[in-house]
Amino acid sequence: MRNHNTQQMQWSTKLLSGAEQIVLSTLFRQHAGAFFSPKFSSAVWVTEGLSGAEARVALIGLRQKGWIKTTRKTWGEHLYYIPNVLLPQLTEAFAIKVGAGNTHDGSVDAQQVERSEMITKDHIQVLYEPEVDIAAELLHLMAWIIHEGLPLTSKGTIHKKSIRQLCNITALHESHFQALHIRYDDPEVYPVHIAIVLDLLLHLGLLEKSDKHVFVSNEQLQAWINRSWSSMYCEIYNICAERYGTSEPYAQHFRSRLLILAPAMNEWFPIRPLLPWRDELQVEEQDLLRCENSNPKNLTSLHVVQSWLRALVGLGFGEVGHDDTGEVVYRWLVPPADLCYSAHPLQDKRLEEEKSGLFIQPDFEILLPPEAPPHIRWRLGLCADLVTRDRMSIYRLTKESVMKSVRIGFTLDQIVLFLNNHAMTGIPEHVHLALQHWGRVSEEHLAKPRNSSDFTLEVAHQGDESADNLNVRSQGIIHTVDKTYEEEDEPYVITERDNLWPGYKDIPEMWHREWRKYHLSTARQIASKAIEWQTKLELKRNEDIVYIIPDRIEGHGEWILSGWVTFSNGENVSERQVLSPRDWGSIRLIVPEHE
Q1: Considering the chain, what is the average pLDDT of its residues?
Q2: Cβ(500)–Cβ(494) under 8 Å?
């Protein structure tokens, strides 16, 4: 499992300086969580009223405060990125900025989003509804793997027979994920939905790999089944978003907006108002629902929306439909707020009081309500066959299912104890007698019956125990953009003034400490230094103070200065002007301060 130390920190954009907020908002809008180079020209920032130097100092502050991370490639190049864990909060904080183009003033049309209050089931035609609960499905598949095993070929791939069996027993469908265009090894062996589920289990650490087998990790399994459903959904959703969702900024913004700006669970809402840069997406509503197999090297914004909506349906997180006007609508089937990492503590504890269990029917069927905790569903899946997935899942006890359980070390006594503890109306007498008989037959067939006090201790020993066949933790099989080339513990930032502003120690302090009127040649030197450092000049014209971000000097004796002018009243007026030294009285070079 991954350690999310970031959750323990208190994050608030209100604690940032004005320049830091502007830089963070701009970087978030342009890059979301994708890599970017820290090298920017002044032209990037002038529309926000910042000089390149101010932006550089703000970036230093953001890096030191943890809002921006740095990674280093093997050849030494540094790349910056905003941590994914912060994207939901930034989506909420900077929704208007990201949504430029959504309405005439660039804001998210809240009224359109809130139309969901008026959308009822009577007005919705559901087009794509889920057939799987991904967290429950992972438990089902792991139970099957424990019983049947996943042997590897000499090439290191899972046998095709096992892949076919996985396809037969899973409720996941290949069609929901094809449009994601996920890259992975051996696509001729693994259908995309099987590749995703294996990658997900490997990345969670629930599966491990030896030279000859893929098997369930006992230690990680025990921690996993004692979590709550909501924390499982959170972990699964975020891995899926990071590993299987398109990494381009538009896609990341759409995913975050769909999660953060949506109403509560089970409320239908229109998709279109939440699309970033909607003016680029002029399509008919029916086109929004088509998910054709586009060229993965040239995916459009439309395809990004389509593919992610279908994937969410395929994972059981939501469903898609349209209302009586033809508007494409979506609703979450899990609380969207719960899918943010910050919504869950690092240690997710099981509820002390179990208020739900299972119901054993006289026909050997077992009814499991949806609120039953994961550890009950897990153990039931080891000793009974899953018959129906629905709001109320149905399992069936059979001679074969009991024999398989005993074979892996889940003894008859443990099965009966488990059922007794959680059966809300007890075990029917004839069912109990059948269990006793099946258990005796099972143990008679075992050459060496296992009497482990805890059957799960046997789970981790399915692979080879030979000394030369150590277990190797795998991070998955899907190709992703890795943000941990060489993660740096300390911020990689230059803070010394002489490095930030080359030649700083060689200029007179009065250039930036005092207001003064200088000779034309000295004023030209000061203006040249401002251009070199990409910083501002502060000019006094009568009683007015004017800031200019210069970018060009023309002439020598009678020289002129070109640049973007802003005013001291705080308005970010990016007005380009040409000034002569005669246009101002005193002048001062602005050297941005940093903490």
Answers
A1: 80
A2: yes
